[in-house]
Structures are given as structure tokens and as C-alpha cells.
Design goal:
The structure is a homodimer. Chain A is mainly α. Chain A contains 12 helices and no strands. At the A-B interface, α6, α8, α9, α10 and α11 of A face α6, α8, α9, α10 and α11 of B. Chain A binds a DNA duplex (30 and 30 nucleotides) through α3.
DNA sequence: CCATTTCTTTGTCGATCAGCAAAGAAATAG
DNA sequence: CTATTTCTTTGCTGATCGACAAAGAAATGG
């Protein structure tokens, strides 16, 4: 059996990983085909033959990012005994990844296409959908926490999920601005300081809004 | 006296404002000179004669953004009676601006150049410095709060300032993902729910870290 | 061996990029 | 009026953009 024709002269997975790192570092639109050929070590024609287009390559790179960087935080979220510990661990694992000197700082899904030309609006929507998975998974974990008794019923879980997702996105920006692991950990500690209040019977808005 | 030579045929302030809106919407690198000539209503040669270069124009646009969008939050921060109210109001005013349908969503300083080519690293540093002013002003307000007695002495004001700045940056991303004013308000409420704990005698890290 | 298939190399495509030179237009100074 | 100054319009520059066509190279099938 085997493969017909001339075999591929490069490692597809490795080349994709190099492309991911380049997109992660410079963003989608600011990464040129010349950048990619240099990073991947192959000619542009090989990229088109193997990945279809720059946009196709980017989408595959995002999926690789999700599979490699996103899996562990999600696992922690689900495996932890309580919703609080799950979200806390997910944030801390992400902090480790964001500040890992072996990879570009921050989160690729957050940083690589927040702005751009109207021609690439579809790509930005694609990334926005990926970003929406975070508060969605947080929310689901909180629901489970209510069922299992570690989260107070009546908690505004939509608000809590959106809040911690927002902190995570802010951490991605902080990483780009030079924040290291310990700095991000401190920020997470601050965010977790809200937990008890947020999961008390009264909702977050009714508890704080009247004061100002 | 008056001016010598042919007078300028366009309103410089208005043209700059149009440029600001375009950069704000699409980011620095993704805004082409063609986009700018269309938005500003003048030819590229006029832009170069009046603003020097695309980068110069962008820097001026950022300063206009700071003067128009950044002044009010800063004023609220300083004018409020307590540090808590000051930071809360600064966040809420920013939420209003981020979600204002009359301007692009989110914060120009956060969104317009988080990634890019190595050639524009200087511009990104410029924006990073502007971003650093936010936690810096929060920190100064917290210091004043300690002096005036509305913030508990011993509070880790660096951590608290970094935390609320991070939430603000996350809100900028949330705006891009479609979050409206009320959604942002809810997130602010959640962030403020941490205040009492964060300004209690024990530091944030010592209060929460041992639990996980 | 030869035919077929698949990948790589080389070269190049038209479009667009930021930027500017030169000429024309509109004001003031004398 | 003419001379000078300044801005606008027009048209262009070399570089770079993403993308691909054509030819050469390396494998399998028969």
C-alpha cells in the first residue's frame, strides 16, 4: 500500500507547530508568507499544497493551540473537586502557559486577531467563538457545583463565569506587557478573593451596586 | 500677520479624529493609507505633509484618544471620595465608552497593536507604556486612600491596582466580542465584590493561596 | 524498464503596501 | 501686477503582499 508519489520532505506536524508559534507571536495579519516559509523551513508552494491557504493554515494552527495549550486547563476545571478549585486551577495553569518563556507570551486565541481588515472578519468571528468557550465551560462547571453542593444555589453563574473569563483575557494582555508567572498568580489571587461574595445568596449586582 | 501661502483645505482636528476612529477600529498595521485617505477625506500626500508619516499620525491619534476618552475616567478616579469609589467609577465610565455605539468597541490603547511585525516593536512599547499608566494611577489613588483612611494600611496596593487594570483590559476584549454596557457593568460588580477581602489586613495571596 | 503520482523548486503574477516627487492651485507680501 | 509661500492633486516608485503555474525530482505500480 503505502503512499503513492514522492513523499513529503518535511514533518507536517512540526511545520504546523512552527506556524502556530509564528502566528502566536505576531498575529494573523502581521505574519507574512515570507515569515512562514522562514519559520517552517519550506517554500510557499509547499505550504499551499499542504495547508491550502494562509487562512487555512492559521485555523489549523488555532486548533493545534487548543489541543496543546487548552486541554490541560479544561481538564483541571473538570477534574477538581469544587467549581472554585476548578476555575482557580484553570486560571493558574493558563498563567503558567502565558508566562512560559518557551512560547510567546499570552494567549494566541485572544491576541492574534482582535483587530484587522474587514476582509478577515470571518477569522475574527472564528476566534471569538473559541474565546466564548471559556465562559461557557466555566458556567457549566458552576452549574455542576450547584448540583454537587459546593456552589450556593441562586448564584449568578453567568456573571461569575463572564468575570473569570474576563480576568483571563486581561491576563493575556498583561503577559504581552511583560507580566511574569508570579504577577499573574497575584492577579488570580485577587480575582478569587471575590469568590465568597459572588457565591453568597444575594447576587453580585444587588450586593455591590447600591453602594455607588 | 495671518498665515502665508495657501491655507489648508481641511480641518486638521477633524481629520485626526477620523484617523483615530479608523485606527481604533482596525488597529495600526491593518489600517492602510488607502483606508486613511478615505476616512480623512484627503490625499496621502496631504497626510504626509500634515502629520509626517503613518506612525506619527497614529501616535497623535493615540494622544487624542487619551485626551478625549481617558480624561473622564481619570477625573472620576481622583475626584471620588474614596479609592474604592474612584476605581469603581473609573471602570464604569470606561465601560460606557467601550460599549458606546458611536465609537468602535473596546479600548484603542489595548486593542490597536497587541501584536505586529518586529518593525513596529517601538509602537507597541509606546502603547504598553500608555497601558501602564492605568495601574499606576490606580496605585496612586490607593496610596491616597490609605492616607485618608478609607483603605486599610498594609493592603497590597500593587496587587489591587494590577488586578483592576487587568479586569479593565479584559473588558476591552469582551467589548470586541460583543459585550454591551450592562454585561460590562456586571463584570465590574463581580470585580468589586473582591474589594473588602482585598483591603482586609491580610494580603490577598496569604488569604487565598493556602486553600488550593 | 516506463507510466503515474505527488511533492519541491523556481519564477512570477497582479494587487497593494507606505511614501514621495513634481506640477498645479490658492493664499499673502511687496 | 509679480514673487513667494504653502497646500493639493496627480502620478508614480520600489518593495512586499498572498497566491499560483510550470518544470524538475522522487517515490510507487506495473
Amino acid at each position: 500500500m503505502a503512499e503513492r508519489g514522492r513523499p513529503r520532505g518535511f514533518d507536517r506536524d512540526l511545520a504546523l507547530r512552527q506556524a502556530m508559534l509564528t502566528f502566536w507571536e505576531h498575529g494573523y495579519e502581521s505574519t507574512s508568507m515570507a515569515d512562514l516559509t522562514a519559520a517552517m523551513g519550506i517554500a510557499s508552494a509547499s505550504i499551499y499544497a499542504c495547508f491550502g491557504s494562509k487562512e487555512h493554515l492559521f485555523r489549523e494552527a488555532v486548533e493545534l493551540y487548543g489541543a496543546t495549550q487548552g486541554a490541560e486547563p479544561l481538564r483541571c476545571l473538570e477534574a477538581s473537586a469544587t467549581a472554585r478549585e476548578g476555575i482557580a486551577r484553570a486560571l493558574r495553569v493558563n498563567a503558567d502557559r502565558f508566562a512560559d518563556p518557551a512560547t510567546p507570551p499570552g494567549c494566541m486565541v485572544v491576541l492574534s486577531a482582535l483587530t484587522g481588515t474587514t476582509a478577515n472578519a470571518g477569522l475574527r468571528d472564528f476566534l471569538a467563538e473559541r474565546r466564548a468557550l471559556v465562559p461557557w465551560s466555566f458556567r457549566r462547571r458552576l452549574e455542576r457545583g450547584i448540583e454537587e453542593g459546593d456552589v450556593t444555589p441562586g448564584t449568578d453563574i453567568d456573571a461569575v463565569a463572564a468575570f473569570y473569563a474576563t480576568v483571563l483575557q486581561g491576563m493575556a494582555v498583561q503577559s504581552r506587557d511583560g507580566a511574569g508567572r508570579t504577577r499573574l498568580e497575584t492577579i488570580i489571587d485577587c480575582a478569587l478573593a471575590a469568590w465568597t461574595t459572588l457565591t453568597s445568596p444575594r447576587t453580585a449586582s444587588s450586593a455591590t451596586a447600591p453602594q455607588e
